Amino acid sequence: MAFEFFEQWAEFFFFCLLVIGFLLSLAAPSAVLSYLMIFVIGMMAGRLMYERKKKLQFPYFLIIVGFVIGYVLGAFYGNKMIILTLFIIGTFLSYYLHDKGIIHDVRY
Hints:
The chain has one domain (9-99). It is 71% helix and 0% strand. It is built from four helices and no strands.
């Protein structure tokens, strides 16, 4: 049976971002850079969640989780629990700052 892209696009991007997250974490030469990178990625995920808050859909969560899983699996430097914690803090901080209007998007 052929791959139905329109029916399985979330799973496809889950896998793609899992691989990208893995490779990106391997490219980080130190724990500090790995922590900084995952915090910024968490900030981007928070912006995406804020942007989709009225029409939030599960596939976006699935894709973000795929990236985080790949990043954690490839993290050679640094503690994996700290990486997860920084991602979660970055996500909630970005969502909160967008919600309060402290951070503005260029479209607004």
